[in-house]
Amino acid sequence: MYADRMLTKWVQDHKPRAAAMKDQPAFYRNLEQAMDLSRTDHSLFVAKPRWGDEVLDLTSSDFLSFSRSGRIREAFQEELARHENFRLSASGSRVQYGNYDYLLQIEQELADFHGAEAAYIAHSGYMANAGTVAAVPLPGDAIVYDEAVHASTHEGMKLSLASHQLSFRHNDADSLLEVLSSLKESHPAFVSGKSSILIAVESLYSMDGDLCPLDELVQVAKELFPLGNAQFIIDEAHSNGVLGPRGAGLVNMLGLEKEIAIRIHMCSKALGSTGGIVLCNKTIRDRLISNARFAIYSGAPSFPMVASMRAGYRLLENGEAEKGMEQIQNSVKHFLKTITAHPVWEEAVDEGILNIPLAEDYESIEHLTHIVPVLTRPKHELYLFFHLMINNINAYPISFPVVPKGKSRVRLVFHAHNGLDQAETLANVICEWAQEMLDIEAGKTENVMPSAARQVFAMKT
């Protein structure tokens, strides 16, 4: 059973190792000692074994099930068959030999699909986002970012030439107004337009599952900076394929194509493919080619990589995302309906055992997202993860520093391959765990730890 293999490996990976390395070079001992701190805290990131289709998948990024169903593989093979004599390697960077015709053709097709002037393909969404944030701002510029943006944005900011980096409260237009106003009041260059502001947000936040109030944020920036020197970069990694017309994303859904300077899309999630895309105008594209280190100092994307991206977009163009998007909506609604109607739900929420912020007024939400976080007390996310895993359900625990302190959770990711029966099973299993936690707190059992956690930690001995 997958749970046995998965949890056995998890236990092995979290056993301290430094003490057993007394005879090893100090270089390796130091690294193991540093990792032992995370092992002791059960917070070490470890490589997990892949699970089979028999496991209820609430974790993978195959949102539309293109990979599981084989549809992306078939589309990819068809794309390769159209170009039998392709060269495997780009054999150079974009500023050298790697700027081949097929790559340019697909970039323009992707730009056209999303209603953008230009597109630039990167090896991954992470690289596209980090590399763009690093390359675009000039000295004297500012980066203003939602406090919940992805790690790739923070990585890009570390490398950026921007003179100012300021955060605003998550999804809070008033907070953005305050931050932008402070820049305007304290630095005349932003008033005159000599310096610019890049505002970094995400369309759909991967830890909270909530949508960006993009219309409101854009209006704030336009009113404060009518010269157009405050522009947005939006990470659409989690909305690509599951929001908007044909899965084109939040910007296309809102009709804000001309208001957003830079859009980052990712093909390795809903499309079941690989690679990242920067949607922009010609100025930004030229800036990336001339100034982005990932463009200058790494080989251009290979033909098979670009072909796999093209295959994913062929599926979107053909309307194959629509059915999956509808299935995700139905499954999330059924899950929320089932869990909030369960007899243990209200008591568990009142006692702080669990909480699902997205469950509040979910029936009135027009677009439910495929990401549903189940918040727990600190360290209890592990207990819930163990309980789900032993019930053949895979959904991963998330804790600090990935999320703020006190905001531990198990993140549920719904897919087109999660039917209503699976959504119902999931809700009941979570409530079963919640009831056990309530019984422990009420002193109805001698145990101080739930049964699944006791079973897992017993593997250590």
Describe this structure in words.
The protein is built from 19 helices and 13 strands. With 461 residues, it is an alpha/beta fold. The two termini are 21 Å apart. It is 45% helix and 12% strand. The chain folds into 2 domains: 2-67 and 322-460, Aspartate Aminotransferase, domain 1, CATH 3.90.1150.10; 71-317, 3-Layer(aba) Sandwich (Aspartate Aminotransferase, domain 2). Strand 5 (197-202), helix 10 and strand 6 form a beta-alpha-beta unit. It is globular and about 65 Å long. The strands form 3 sheets. It has a 7-stranded mixed beta sheet, with helices on both faces. The model has no long low-confidence stretch (mean pLDDT 96). Helix 4 (71-81) packs across helix 14 (303-317), helix 6 packs parallel to helix 7 and helix 17 packs across helix 19 (451-457). The longest helix is centred in the last third of the chain and has 22 residues, at 420-441. The chain has helices at 2-13, 26-40, 66-69, 71-81, 101-114, 125-135, 151-159, 173-186, 188-192, 214-224, 250-254, 282-291, 293-296, 303-317, 321-341, 345-350, 380-390, 420-441, 451-457, and strands at residues 56-57, 118-122, 142-146, 164-168, 197-202, 230-235, 262-266, 276-280, 354-355, 371-376, 393-394, 397-398, 409-413. It comes from Coleophoma cylindrospora. Residues 54-423 form the Aminotransferase class I/classII large domain. Its cofactor is pyridoxal 5'-phosphate. InterPro entries: Aminotransferase_I/II_large, AON_synthase_class-II, PyrdxlP-dep_Trfase, PyrdxlP-dep_Trfase_major, PyrdxlP-dep_Trfase_small. GO terms for molecular function: pyridoxal phosphate binding; transaminase activity.
